[in-house]
Amino acid sequence: MRETDGAAGPVPEPVPRTLCDVTGLVTAPAPAGVAWKLTEAGRQLDANVVHLPPNATVDTHVEPELDVLLFVVAGGGTVTGTGRAEHLSEGSLLWLPRGSSRSLAAGDDGLFYLTVHRRRPGLQIRRTDRPASG
């Protein structure tokens, strides 16, 4: 245990641990969308395993703030950047730099992929000072 300077008491030491069996995710029937999500408190990363059914797509979009790593867990498809399509297959590891335009398309067998990026800061509500009316 680590000591804290707060009144809540000692904080447990961080311990590496298995979060899920990804092979189990891809072998079970799965709906489209997020099949697994990193939810541990105090993390600095966000990660998701996403399932695209056969021939499904993710429309063209830009992530302006975050670099993203995308790892193909199972299946295949294509990622299309600015006018360039690249084949994806199991084991492909892609870097999607912030500001890059991209879309994804699953192949005939569908696509399971893991994304990892820096965690976005939580929503903060801030006070806005309004000018005094006179």
Automatic annotation (TrEMBL):
Keyword entries, A-Z: DNA-binding
Annotated ranges, domain AraC-type arabinose-binding/dimerisation: 68-117
GO molecular function, one term: DNA binding
GO biological process: regulation of DNA-templated transcription
InterPro entries, per the entry: AraC-bd, RmlC-like_jellyroll, RmlC_Cupin_sf
Name of the featured protein: AraC-type arabinose-binding/dimerisation domain-containing protein
